[in-house]
Amino acid sequence: MNIFGFLEFRFLDFLDIVLVAVLLFYIYKLVKGTVAINIFLGIAIIYLIWKLTQVLQMEMLSDILGKFIGGGFIALIIVFQQEIRKFLLMLGSTGLSTKKGFLRHVNFFKNESVAETDVVQIVSACEEMGKTKTGALIVIGRSSSLERFKISGDQMHIEVNKPILKSIFYKNSTLHDGAIIIEDNIITATRVILPVAKDIDIPLRFGLRHRAAIGISMQTDALVLIVSEETGKIAYIKNGEFVLFDDTDKLIELLQHDLQ
């Protein structure tokens, strides 16, 4: 297809652009909010300048930038080793990588294969725990496998309901430390140790519980609810970003939408 008279544009060129855009989106999503974002933007700018010098046939500058980019590839792997590891984990945990995740993307299998999570019971429990300033950390699984996190806690198989959730996080309960994991309306693990996000800038009033919630939400597509012991506020975390909620009705609507 010839669009501009002198530039031939094929379908494969379009596909190439789309795939690069998707790749850059996932990389940006991975490093957003960390110190690595500045390095990523710097590399992107240098790469764009290099391609521009090639188009303009500025041979000397193009050669210098080309050697800089080529020689710095190994250095980038060393600098970004943690981010690369997280990126590969994210790719391996995509919604289509598991049978359950695939069926969730096929509408006519959805109701048969996936139990609907009782969001109302979960949010209601969080609201009551907030009134008594009882801390809670609840991970709600979606497509990504959470097996590697569940092994750090106690395996369970309990249907979700408000009294159970409140009893688990009761301060004198032996199960209240750590997080719980809910999958398909079943509490599958308690006392789970979550990965703590270290290179994330969050307000000082938020502690390890919030960093742990951000950590798992950046490595998987899980949704996380937190009840603060200090304020009793409910926080909702998705993809490394959290929002404080006072209106539980809106929170229920948002959870139901994100779990579809």
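Second entry:
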Amino acid sequence: MSTVVDRPGKIVEDWTVWEYDSVTSTNLVAAELPAWSAVRAETQTAGRGRFQRKWVSDRGGLWLSAVVPTPSPNGRILPLLAGVAVCDVLYGLGVRHLRLRWPNDVMVLDRKLAGVLIDQFRPGLAVIGIGLNIDNQPACYDATLENHIERLADIRPAPIPIENLITVLLRRIRSLVQPLTAGDWTPLLSRVNDLWSKGRRVELDLDGDIRGGWFAGVDDAGRLLLQDDVGASTAYDPEKVRHLTEMPEYHE
């Protein structure tokens, strides 16, 4: 599963962080760890997104998984929380034009900068996997990514030590998770809806059943809201939405 670099777990912001040179997936390595543990690797050989889609994880990016406690009723909020945490950290680095794309992409305008994957291997615990393009070259491994991804190195020329990035990201995740475990996620949903580009025409793939409409954000249960042409909204559970496609904007 992994090639271990001789780096014992170290304490970072009340987290125990394990570092590897290469792993199949940081989420899989983190699967057996306790809450407030994190795994970081230089590369992943089998990085993945939702529905087992391939995630190119070449050297130069940040591939990080964080284990957090989560009461099961609040699990669907975690991808939204993780997206907010990533955006907050990037804003602090001076990155602008950030937005979230349902359910787990962090975008700069229309290019993907980061992605999130939540796994729940054991009751009461969840693994938040984060992939962030920094100065890696994913298009060299998958030509279809050309002109579709963004890198932190192209937005913020001054490099930031990856250890500093991990520290502030873990700090922000913890500060958002703790209120969630107490059942207080209303302020988080407000922040989520601020980061989404509402009013975009989209198509939802509900495992082969295609629904079209206007993206209207998320409700207080973390479900996607799709608005039809007469203004009526339907809520969809995240696990029901296999894919969301943003339609090209049309201007008369």
